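Tutorial sheet, problem 5. The two components below are modelled jointly, 486 residues in total.
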Amino acid sequence: MAGSFLSRESTIAPPGFSRAMVPPAALAVHLSIGQVYAFSTFNLPLTHLIGLTHSAPGDWDIKEVVVTFSIAIAILGLAAALFGPWVERVGPRKSMFVAALCFGGGFIVSAVGVHYHSLFLIYLGYGVLGGCGLGIGYISPVSTLIKWFPDRPGVATGLAIMGFGGGALIAAPLSVLLMAHFRTPTSNGVLETFVTMGVIYFMFMMIGVYSARVPAEGWKPAGWTPPATPPPLVTQAHVAVDVAWRTPQFWLLWVVLCMNVTAGIGVLGQASPMIQEIFAGRVNAATAAGFVGLLSFFNMIGRFFWASTSDYIGRRNTYTVFFALGILLYFSVPSLGRAGSLPLFVAAFVVILSMYGGGFATVPAYLRDIFGTMHVGAIHGRLLTAWAVAGVLGPTLITSIRAYELKSGVPKAQTYSVTMYLMCAFLLIGLICNFCMRPVDEKHHHRAAAPQRSP
Amino acid sequence: MKAKSVLLWLAVGVPLLWGVVKTLQNAMKLF
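Model answer (structure tokens):
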């Protein structure tokens, strides 16, 4: 019974089904898994499990706790790459259900880890199990949305992936509220918050499971016909996932995504100390938290704005804007800091973060343009390994360079300048790779008359 | 179908709106 409900066949939309119901299904999943960006709200409480209000002997070190986030992001990339073909084959409903089980279950296992004070269980629960939920959940609606919105793929995927950015905006205040609610003289509320969030997110993701539908074979939006002469770099052919990742186009896009994410993620992780040190005396920890919130907001808005814009100006042009404007902004940030211009400094970073989010949201449509729709979800899954690499590369580089400069006697406020120039170099590499993008050679096109499902 | 669609949009839109308002309230402290 449950197997039948979850099967791909039972999700084929009946005649008269409104495609407007598909984006909320995708949003329900992405708003949930986007919680990962707010995991840092648990960092400090997890180091106070024994001492409750302070770190006591036996409490975990902050460096040990933050590894949880890195594991989750690395597993996200691996799970998306490994399970991509499976997600294509079983459809959105079953994959969303498995993602909900993994993500909700990850919280529950982590709660057990808090109970027994086992960091291994936290890594295993939120990091590995939750990371699998993140990876499967992230790619589960992408292919479906692209098939429902062939006329506006950027708008559709931008809307869903905007949810991943928006998830942090919900999760950060929700975590704080729940921990305050469950705090007692013997507990700082983390265990109960993990259990509650596991249940809430599982239920919320069920909205997606319940309402996900795939279009019937050959379905097209009313009154829409594919353009007779598609724009340059937009194919009407299909490339299979096992062929796609052997093409230069896949690796060019991999580098494009990796460079864009490295530049953004490095800043996102350092935003709070950076603004406090550059504007010492004017920005304290509380206002810096406001800055981080603002960055998260623009990370979310950028996902919808830039992905939608790409439907009009093209994917390659959109990434050209990301890289060219990004270089300009990163290059100007040290000067803005030295000039003491807080509003301009903030403005530069909100635009940078909008383009960071925009990079994630525009890439599914870019893949669809280059490789067609047949295995776009699975190809997207493999491309997300770039995120896993960037998730390690960005923060590690920024932290190492900063530590080296501090050791060399560079004043704190100036240590970020070299990092910003390094980000310009990353973006330049991305710009060159994006510029080199060409249509896939016809010899790689799938030959079957009808599109086949992923193996 | 239309009512179902509205309900779905509300189910995802209301929590998101709550998160956005909370975040922007916090961000206002910056200026």
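Marking note: Residues 248-278 of chain A form the longest helix (31 residues). Full credit if you identified this.
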